[in-house]
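Entry for iron/sulfur cluster complex. Fields follow.
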Amino acid sequence: MKLTVDRNLCDGNGVCMGIAPEVFDIDDDLTLHIVDEIPDDPAVHARVRQSITSCPVLALTLEE
Ligand code: SF4
């Protein structure tokens, strides 16, 4: 599972971080960071998928 963010779209609103805080982090400059290794946990993967569909600007893309 590999996640990428389109930085031209992401505005740092933090919706994804609210859903999957173990995967997403927003720094003080509202820059999104994604962990290098997504935990191999079905519950986390489900939250990642929810984050993708919940992103208001659809900035997240998943490659499996
Ligand atoms: S929900 Fe979308 S726009 Fe908001 S921080 Fe996450 S990737 Fe960026």
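NOTE: The helical segments are 15-19, 42-54.
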